[in-house]
Specification:
The chain is of the alpha/beta class. It has 2 domains: 159 residues, Multidrug-efflux Transporter Regulator, Chain: A, Domain 2; 127 residues, Rossmann fold (3-Layer(aba) Sandwich), CATH 3.40.50. Strands 4-3-5-6-7 form a 5-stranded parallel β-sheet, with helices on one face. A two-stranded antiparallel ribbon has the order 1-2. The longest helix is centred in the middle third of the chain and has 21 residues.
Length: 295
């Protein structure tokens, strides 16, 4: 069980600390523990409840009404109000709760409902990719354990794998080529798999190298295959200097290719990037870059 400060909850739920205090005092939405110096401390149950309460509140339920519901009733109403066509944020928050609870049924229901209503690609852009950005934040703050992340990642990996396999094989010898890989310390590949699907659908020849790829292996592949684009993610907490050194070496070796970087850690080094390295904020921007390059 994790312990959170009120600032942690504000960051993870998007609910202002002032609002959390009001909900706590007036409506007993959460009941935190307190230290000897009267500092609030919240648990996993508080985080899950606040995520669910914020969904209901955003869809029109008054806090005074929500406070009278049991936890089970809140959970049931959240499923009822989720709107795959309009309320992506609520879907993401509900998926986070399902991950923390290791609730496969709830997670599958939310994901399948979204795919049915708005399609796989829209779900990928507006729900799955932002969800894993949230997972990265939860990982950095110690909110989730490896088992929770692996549980949910494998469920989505299966769907992505099926979707990628359903796309036609790119046989055009003139097709642009893209290397997708993670640095040798990096394990979080959901964002990279999303990019794989998008690049393949755009007609790129994709060389998917996956997790923990030593740089020397990239150099060896480059001797055989000429890439047009390289794309990678930085999620795990390494220092800015380590990322800078890595990108400097990568840029020097692939000085005529475009190198695209994404992920939470990449956002911190955007002011010092080599000339051929570009920070990509998310799936939507990556898709636009692919469309621009291929045409």
């Amino acid at each position: 069980m994790s312990n959170y400060s009120i600032k942690d909850l504000e960051r993870l739920t998007g609910i202002k600390a002032h609002t959390i205090r009001i909900w706590e005092k007036r409506y007993n939405i959460v009941d935190p523990g307190r230290s000897d110096s009267n500092i609030r401390s919240y648990c996993d149950g508080d985080l899950k409840k606040l995520l669910n309460v914020s969904i209901l509140n955003r869809t029109g339920y008054k806090i005074s009404s929500i406070s009278k519901l049991t936890t089970q009733q809140i959970n049931e109403k959240v499923i009822e109000v989720l709107d795959p066509e309009n309320d992506y944020q609520s879907q993401i928050e509900s998926m986070v709760v399902a991950m923390i609870e290791l609730n496969e049924e709830r997670f599958e229901r939310i994901l399948n409902q979204s795919i049915t209503k708005i399609g796989f690609e829209e779900t990928l852009f507006y729900v799955v990719y932002p969800f894993f950005e949230k997972v990265g934040l939860l990982w950095q703050t110690g909110t989730i354990c490896p088992a929770q992340e692996h549980f949910i990642s494998n469920l989505i990996r299966l769907k992505l794998s099926v979707a990628i396999d359903s796309l036609p094989i790119v046989s055009n010898p003139e097709a642009k080529r893209v290397f997708l890989f993670l640095p040798e310390w990096e394990l979080h590949e959901m964002g990279l798999l999303t990019y794989y699907y998008m690049a393949r659908k755009q007609g790129y020849k994709v060389f998917y190298l996956g997790q923990k790829v030593p740089m020397r292996d990239l150099f060896e592949l480059a001797d055989t295959v000429k890439a047009d684009i390289l794309a990678t993610f930085f999620v795990t907490g390494v220092t800015e200097n380590e990322i800078q050194t890595y990108l400097t070496n990568l840029s020097a070796q692939f000085n005529t290719q475009q190198i695209l970087i994404s992920g939470m850690q990449a956002a911190g080094v955007t002011a010092k990037l080599p000339e051929n390295v570009k920070y990509v904020q998310g799936a939507g921007e990556f898709k636009k870059l692919l469309e621009k390059t291929v045409h």
